[in-house]
Design brief:
The protein is globular. It has a domain of 77 residues: Rossmann fold (3-Layer(aba) Sandwich), CATH 3.40.50. The protein is built from one helix and eight strands; from the N terminus they run E-E-E-E-E-E-H-E-E. It is mostly beta strands.
Length: 118
């Protein structure tokens, strides 16, 4: 398993799609990605991220021989349809993720940096 950090949603509630930022390297126990790769994400919204990440990976890891993609949710408005998905959603509904509550909280709201001893 390898991890690549990719971000495109910003704003105060994390709901504004902006320019895609791709991390400079892949975190992995392997030195290089090679062979067959399965690119996994939680969802494909517009598809722009998947469309940019796949060529980025192939460029930086030319030993990749095959790449497939998998997500939980794919929206019909996406410009890319992953090879595997669990749910196909018509339109572009917002999917509420369990971690979204933290997008609008400050460190003080969650108790980070608090002088209180628990």
């Amino acid at each position: 398993m390898s991890v690549l950090s990719v971000s495109s949603y910003r704003g105060s509630a994390g709901q504004e799609q902006g320019q895609i930022q791709i991390g400079g390297s892949v975190a992995s126990v392997e030195k290089n990605l090679r062979g067959r790769v399965l690119l996994v994400d939680d969802l494909v919204d517009s598809g722009v991220t998947f469309k940019e990440v796949q060529p980025w990976l192939r460029h930086h890891y030319p030993e990749i021989t095959e790449m497939k993609s998998a997500v939980i949710w794919v929206k019909s408005v996406s410009v890319v349809i992953p090879d595997f998905y669990l749910e196909y959603l018509e339109g572009a509904p917002w999917i509420h993720q369990p971690f979204e509550i933290y997008d609008t909280l400050s460190f003080e709201d969650i108790g980070v940096g608090s002088s209180d001893k628990h």
